[in-house]
Amino acid sequence: MNLRNRCSICLFATVLLGGCTPGTNEADVDTSRPTEFGYQTTPRTVRLQEGEAAYNFYCIGCHGENGLGDGPGARFLNPQPRNFQKAKFKFISTRFAELPTDEDLFRSISEGLRGSSMPSWGHLPEQTRWALVEYIKTFSDIWDRPPTPAIPFVTDPYVEMQDKSAAIERGEMAYHGFFSCWNCHPAYVPEQKISEYSIALGGPPRSGLREDIDRSAIKKDEDDKTIFAPDFHRDYVKAGTSVEDLYRSIAAGITGTAMPTWIDAAADGPEDDEGNKLVTQADIWAMAYYVQDLLKKRNVMIDPEALVVRSDREMRFGESGMEYTAEIAVDEDVEIFEEDE
Ligand code: HEC
Ligand code: HEC
């Protein structure tokens, strides 16, 4: 330990208490960097300084000075920017209402949340993004809790198959017949078919389901703000469209909204008379393929006329601009899925 650079009070504290900078242990001291005011600067301190500087430059306008999600831009936004003091995160690989992993935060920062106003920050250096992860955790002491285990990523039984139609068919059955995702998201098959799927998976016949079942239900989030469960033929999903992303979103659920953790319900699924499982955790993969297939059909489902409301181009280009708008939107979709292959 280099004691020469320390002030005498610290030297005393060092001897008596084993250190004077809270949270600093000796192994963490970076001797390659200059000292400040006689203290050694630690890598963590440097990272937090970098995180704070980046936060104050890029994030403060929405997430606010104290991380409350109350920056000057926030009042125009729905959903609202995340409140980091509450430390409740939506797009995580842990269970409902648990703390996310650092990788989860890093992913949301790097990729952004498509269809919300949270941009992607993938253009910032990786080191800066990790520094931001570390810095936003300083807004709440909930982070002192021990880390929570991530949800299981069970083996994907369809991964080797060239043709994913078996996965998609199984996903359609699980989505409608057992998990009743149509309680919030739309149903994509007629009621009669839902009933058949339910019986096949050990459930009762179904009828008299919710009104307008071919549309999303309007839900409230934890802060009593209106939130839509996406219609996969129409809307964006925020946390990624690869099957791994969709598996994670479905398995873990979305904290603060009505969407629960599904991986445990899948584990406790029904059995037939011989004790064979009718529903398993692998069905989460099937639903991921199914939802991805619905999303892929999205560009053909959208009425080009409806695209106009998403863009101000037609105002600038007049009537001929409409064709241009539709073309751009379709191209964008094709690109997302090519990346995911
Ligand atoms: C233009 C406004 C805006 C800016 C700028 C912005 N965010 Fe966000 N951010 C949001 C919104 C809105 C949400 C919530 C989206 C939702 O709930 O669907 C969000 C959510 C998040 C989340 C939560 C993800 C989760 O799993 O719940 C993190 C982490 C985050 N932002 C980090 C950052 C960081 C770091 C920066 C700066 C580099 C930043 N944001 C800049 C608007 C913004
Ligand atoms: C009780 C209501 C409810 C049920 C049931 C439900 N969801 Fe959701 N789901 C939501 C809401 C609300 C959102 C939007 C969250 C947001 O945008 O912040 C959502 C979002 C999603 C997303 C998008 C995640 C993202 O990245 O934006 C997927 C995928 C999804 N749900 C799949 C499913 C599947 C599959 C099922 C059935 C196993 C299901 N959901 C059951 C309410 C529900």
SSE layout and pairing:
Blueprint: H1 8-17, H2 43-63, H3 102-111, H4 126-136, H5 165-178, H6 191-200, E1 218-220, E2 226-228, H7 243-252, H8 263-267, H9 282-296, H10 298-301, H11 304-307, H12 313-317, H13 321-340
Antiparallel strand pairs: 1-2
Helix pairs in contact: 2-4, 3-4, 5-6, 5-9, 7-9
One heme C (HEC) binds next to helix 7 and helix 9.
How would you describe the overall organization of this protein?
By secondary structure, this protein is mostly helical. The protein has 4 domains: 1-41, no CATH class; 43-144, Orthogonal Bundle (Cytochrome Bc1 Complex, Chain D, domain 2), CATH 1.10.760.10; 165-300, Cytochrome Bc1 Complex, Chain D, domain 2; 306-340, no CATH class. It is 41% helix and 2% strand. The chain contains 13 helices and 2 strands, in the order ααααααββααααααα. The chain has helices at 8-17, 43-63, 102-111, 126-136, 165-178, 191-200, 243-252, 263-267, 282-296, 298-301, 304-307, 313-317, 321-340; strands spanning 218-220, 226-228. Strands 1-2 form a two-stranded antiparallel ribbon. Strand 1 and strand 2 (226-228) form a beta hairpin. The longest helix is centred in the N-terminal third of the chain and has 21 residues, at 43-63. The radius of gyration is 25 Å and the shape is elongated. The model is unreliable at 1-26 and 306-341 (pLDDT under 50). The site of one heme C has 24 residues, from helix 7 and helix 9.
